[in-house]
Amino acid sequence: MKLQVALDVAKLDQALTLARQTAEYVDILELGTPLIKAEGLDAITAIKAAHPDKLVFADMKTADAGELEADLAFTAGADLVTVMGAADDDTVRGAVAAGRKHGKDVVADMITIVDDRVARIREVSKLGVSFVEIHAGLDEQAKPGYTIDSLLDDGKQAGVPFSIAGGITAASIKAVQDSGATVAVAGGAIRSAEDPAAAAKALKSLIR
Ligand SMILES: O=C([C@H](O)CO)[C@H](O)[C@H](O)COP(=O)(O)O
């Protein structure tokens, strides 16, 4: 299982610092959606230039104009770009077309899809995304009673490659791996740690 760090900060200099601290221990550097909104697509170029050996994931969460938005992110240097799994099929198809043009990967973010998630995961996989991200966003995580357990069954049931994001910690990363995920996405557990490098290293050490 790969480890992806979500650089969920609003300033490029903070993102570059977090990337520098953690790159040694992670496989994928994710520009979080707020970072891309705050700093623009040039932030993708800057992170890729600083870490050409890492996969750079642009969490565009595209909901419309799939081909245009994915093309912009790939042109800026992204290796992986997200499209909303809840978007129109043509939006997903468009993002996939841009991915094929650049020889890169599109990931469908399944955030907000709770009912019939397995069925939608299968549909977007047939539309050509490389994998799906089974995801509880920060607002869902803040709801009383949230646990990551709500994310652990659907990937295996759908029978397609998937990542998991939703507040992964050192206490939950083993369960994420056991669920069959190919990528674990960790944001807050690394970003909010007193020592982000040590937190990333600890998460990586728990992956078999
Ligand atoms: O995608 C994310 C969220 O929607 C904010 O953009 C996070 O990067 C993702 O959830 C991982 O962060 P944590 O949940 O804090 O681990």
TrEMBL record:
Top-level EC class, please? lyase
What keywords would UniProt list here?
Answer: Carbohydrate metabolism, Lyase
Q: Where is the Orotidine 5'-phosphate decarboxylase domain?
A: 2-203
Q: Its Gene Ontology molecular function terms?
A: hexulose-6-phosphate synthase activity
Q: Which domain of life is it from?
A: Bacteria
Q: Which Pfam families match?
A: OMPdecase
Q: Tell me the pathway.
A: One-carbon metabolism; formaldehyde assimilation via RuMP pathway; D-fructose 6-phosphate from D-ribulose 5-phosphate and formaldehyde: step 1/2
Reactions catalysed, semicolon-separated, are: D-ribulose 5-phosphate + formaldehyde = D-arabino-hex-3-ulose 6-phosphate
InterPro entries linked: 3-hexulose-6-phosphate_synth, Aldolase_TIM, HPS/KGPDC, OMPdeCOase_dom, RibuloseP-bd_barrel
Q: What are its E.C. numbers?
A: 4.1.2.43
Q: Which family does it belong to?
A: Belongs to the HPS/KGPDC family. HPS subfamily.
What's the protein name? 3-hexulose-6-phosphate synthase
Organism (species): Saccharopolyspora mangrovi
